[in-house]
Sequence to fold (221 residues):
Amino acid sequence: RKEVEQDPGPFNVPEGATVAFNCTYSNSASQSFFWYRQDCRKEPKLLMSVYSSGNEDGRFTAQLNRASQYISLLIRDSKLSDSATYLCVVSGGGYSTLTFGKGTMLLVSP
Amino acid sequence: SQTIHQWPATLVQPVGSPLSLECTVEGTSNPNLYWYRQAAGRGLQLLFYSVGIGQISSEVPQNLSASRPQDRQFILSSKKLLLSDSGFYLCAWSGSGEGYTFGSGTRLTVV
Fold:
């Protein structure tokens, strides 16, 4: 089983749509969870951390379900500028190195 | 504020040639440092990480090596490049328990 699994997409959505990405992870001892955004041929950039209680940052909402080892990212009112690859990221046991999923590609069209 | 510098941005090297990529961090002390590689169409692969000067952990055995001669300097090297070494090399730093901040990356093409 892969450590961090994501649907590679692409997800094609119109502007203004709501889109959700899911991610599953295999290490039940993981303590830290993040979503990163990577634009084409650029470095990944931290989008948001994911907390057990869930967290929201503007149009973005992240949820964590430890029992199911599942993380989600919801984007509301999609913008053209949201087009990118979204990487699900999970720590190893405790606070060790991070493992990156292969990413889900989002394409927002006019 | 903390910044991370990585160079060069692009590199084309012949098979069998040596490699040296450098990464430096400013504005923080004793950062955790990482080298990742992203091959075309693939995910990020952790190559090396370091929690202090001279301390290097290797995640994937291969013809690459890493060194940390100073607190905020991390170097990725190879004595002889292979075609399979082509990819997007990313340096990153973190504090304890935090997400990583990446440098802008080096796109390496081995020909």
User: Anything to note?
Assistant: The CA atoms of residues 32 and 98 of chain B lie 10 Å apart. Chain B has a mean pLDDT of 92. The two ends of chain B are 38 Å apart (CA to CA). The longest strand of chain B covers residues 44-52.
